[in-house]
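A student in our group prepared the protein record below, which I am reviewing. I have pasted the whole thing underneath without changing anything:
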Amino acid sequence: MTEVFMAAALVLLLAMAAGLVRVIVGPSAADRMMGAQLLGTMGIGVLLLLAFAFERDALTDVALIFGLLASVAAVALTRRRIGQDQD
């Protein structure tokens, strides 16, 4: 079963590499923000898969913390963008 988790984590890592292109190139700031959110979400998924594969509870805790940080980052980026539009 470990091989299945590792294979799924590898697929997510490859998708993260594709999402990184959107963050770097992305034509608008909204595309870059969505790409960053995609990277955060996939990173959480990779951590959870590795936690199950290696039976490490600490990786689950790290994934939960990343989830909290990703939601705060999304709010901060959105509020920053709204503040720039009003000026």
Observations:
- The chain has one domain: 2-86.
- The helical segments are 2-25, 29-54, 57-86.
